[in-house]
Amino acid sequence: MVLSSPSGGGKTVLARMLLKKHSEFKRSISFTTREKRKGEKEGADYHFVSRKDFQKKIKEHEFAEWALVFGNYYGTPKENIQKAEGKIEVILLVLDVQGGLALKRKYPDSVLIFILPPSLIELEKRLSLRGTDKPRVIKKRLKAALKEITFCKRYDYILVNKKLKDTVKLLEEIITTERHKANRTVLEICLRKRSK
Fold first, then answer.
1. pTM of the predicted model, to two decimals?
2. Percentage of the chain surpassing pLDDT 70?
3. What one-character-per-residue DSSP string does 60-125 give?
4. Is residue 24 classed as helix, strand or coil in its secondary structure?
5. Over pLDDT 90: what percentage of the chain?
6. How far apart are the C-alpha atoms of 76 and 58, rounded to whole Å?
7. Residue 101: closest CA among 178, 146, 155, 29
8. How many Å apart are CA 122 and CA 43, to the nearest integer?
């Protein structure tokens, strides 16, 4: 299950809330070359690595997908996806649009959910309150947000994140719906029979 949104859209906070409520869900931790933000933890939010180490991982084909975003590399380890394949579990991935669409091409059963802010004014406010970017960078992120939003029609679901609790509830409903789709239910029955 992939959560994407423009910077400041709430994808990371929503993933944290889901993981806190549902201990059975897993989160795929991505690698990045960007600086650690205040409050972030190595191995919990990201694996923070040097550009050299990241490029080595690219050469060694360790990523299911990777992208260069705002001058920093981000990548999803193949290992995280492979561990979840063929299991009956929810693995959450917090990815930008490039990463989400790349993952869907490689793993068609992925469920892509695009998180929209209520408005661009609200998005700008959230980015400012975050306190991690200078006004020049916020302007750049807002410009990128307009482009990213055009890709939401290629996602399976689109949610407007007005209130976090309401959005979490909608995400839980999507997960329940997806688990009950015919192809997933048949897979679950077959896996249970095999494990007996």
1. 0.81
2. 90
3. TT-EEEEEEETTEEEEEEHHHHHHHTTSS--EEEE--HHHHHHHHHH-TT--EEEEE-S-HHHHHH
4. coil
5. 52
6. 11
7. 155
8. 30
Q: What's phi and psi for 103, nearest 5 deg?
A: -65, -40
Most confident of 50-54, 89-93, 106-110, 138-142: 50-54
Q: What are the φ and ψ backbone dihedral angles of 132, each rounded to 5 degrees? A: -105, -15
Which residue ranges make up each domain of the chain?
2-195
Would you state the structure tokens that stand for residue 143, as one six-digit string? 């410009």
- Could you tell me the pLDDT band of residue 121, with boundaries at 50, 70 and 90? confident
Question: How much is the pLDDT for 194?
Answer: 57
Torsion of CA 41, 42, 45, 46, to 10 degrees: 150
Query: 129, exposed or middle or buried, with CB in 10 Å at 0-12, 13-18, 19+?
Result: exposed
Q: How far apart (Å, rounded) are the C-alpha atoms in residues 115 and 118?
A: 10
CB atoms within 10 A of CB 105: 9
On the CB side of 53, CA atoms within 13 Å amount to 10
Residue partners of 45: CB distance under 8 A and separation at least 6: 12, 29, 36
Topology (CATH) of 2-195: Rossmann fold (3.40.50)
